[in-house]
Specification:
Elements (H helix, E strand, L loop, with lengths): L2 E7 L20 H9 L1 H5 L5 E4 L3 H14 L3 E3 L16 H10 L11 H18 L4 E6 L1 H10 L7 H6 L4 E8 L2 E5 L4
Parallel strand pairs: 1-4, 2-3, 2-4
Antiparallel strand pairs: 1-5, 5-6
Length: 188
């Protein structure tokens, strides 16, 4: 199998706020929309054969300008969504994330563990690579999803500080070959 996946962490979104849009509907800020437009040349230059995204608005908005420029649809895939953490909008979210990274098998009620996220992410991305052999797929996604995918594919240097410091936007290139998955991107 030969395929290339370009994981795009979404551009700058509105911050979560009580009474604001829920996590699924938080849009990009004006700065984020401009960042998404600036990605078009780089992403189009990779000649993607397909564009997929988490169904969350901020991820879709990040890859939409590239999809428009190339005349490709954005395929929304529920399995590419962000971590179902059940943490919610709280000022001390970083503490909760750090605790989860320290014990990736810990699961909050009604949520998934970080380990489960790694399994979901690697399964979904491997299926996309198999479906798009000899092609390149641009994927709008999220920081924790990308971080846990990298862990799932064997990158041992990814931890909570790495995930927390991941830029918005950020591009990670996964090359699926007969030898395995080669990964490049910021911080690796």
């Amino acid at each position: 199998m030969r395929a290339e996946l370009i994981l795009v962490r979404h551009a700058r979104p509105l911050l979560p706020a009580p009474g604001g849009p829920d996590d699924h509907h938080r849009p990009l800020t004006e700065e984020g929309l401009a960042q998404a437009e600036r990605l078009v040349d780089d992403l189009a230059g990779l000649r993607p054969t397909a564009i997929a995204s988490s169904p969350y608005l901020r991820a879709v908005q990040t890859v939409e300008p590239t999809a428009r420029a190339l005349g490709l649809p954005v395929h929304r895939d529920h399995d590419l969504r962000e971590w179902d953490s059940a943490i919610g909008s709280t000022p001390d979210y970083a503490r909760h994330y750090a605790e989860s990274w320290a014990d990736p098998h810990h699961t909050r009620p009604g949520a998934e563990s970080l380990h489960q996220l790694s399994v979901r992410a690697t399964t979904a991305l491997t299926a996309l690579a198999e479906h798009h052999q000899d092609g390149t797929v641009v994927i709008g996604s999220h920081g924790t999803f990308i971080s846990r995918a990298l862990v799932g594919f064997g990158v041992t240097t990814v931890d909570w500080p790495f995930s927390h410091a991941m830029p918005m936007p950020a591009l990670y290139r996964l090359r699926f070959t007969a030898r395995g998955v080669e990964i490049t991107g910021p911080g690796l």
